[in-house]
Amino acid sequence: MSALVSWYKSRSNAFKAALNTSWQSFIGVFGLALLGFLGDVAKWSDGSLDTFPSVSVLGKAAVAAAAAAASFLVTFVIRGYQKMKNPTSGPNYK
Q1: What is the pLDDT of residues 30-53, one digit of tens each?
Q2: What global pTM score does this model have?
Q3: Domain ranges of the chain
Q4: What's the DSSP call for residue 88?
Q5: 44 burial class (0-12, 13-18, 19+ CB within 10 angstroms)?
Q6: Looking at residue 10, what is its pLDDT?
Q7: How far are the Cα atoms of 7, 17, 87 from residue 72, in angstroms, in the given order?
């Protein structure tokens, strides 16, 4: 665990900001998709739906991962550009 912590601390501020943004994006996108699936399961259990909703959790995770990767890339580029223009701008992730 300490190797992971030291690896994280050795990374740039732009990388840390991008990593923070990407995991939050993944949780948010996957959470919304999962809530939609659970809503469909609730409708099925009430008898509103005849068949059990398709379990496409893997597809929803893939979409969430793609959104997280895109947010990582955008945040990394923007924070890196900010650091080039003004080294004291933005929050500092420790």
Answers
A1: 888 888 888 888 888 988 888 887
A2: 0.70
A3: 13-85
A4: T
A5: middle
A6: 83
A7: 18, 8, 20
Are 43 and 78 contacting, i.e. CB atoms less than 8 angstroms apart?
Answer: no
Query: In this structure, what token pair is assigned to residue 66?
Result: 């793609």
Match 């909703």 to its residue by tokens.
Answer: 53
The per-type count for the chain, helices as H runs and strands as E runs, is 3, 0
> Which parts of the chain have pLDDT scores under 70?
89-94
Distances (CA, A) of 81 to 13, 25, 63, 91: 12, 21, 27, 14
Inter-residue contact 17 to 75 (CB < 8 Å) = yes
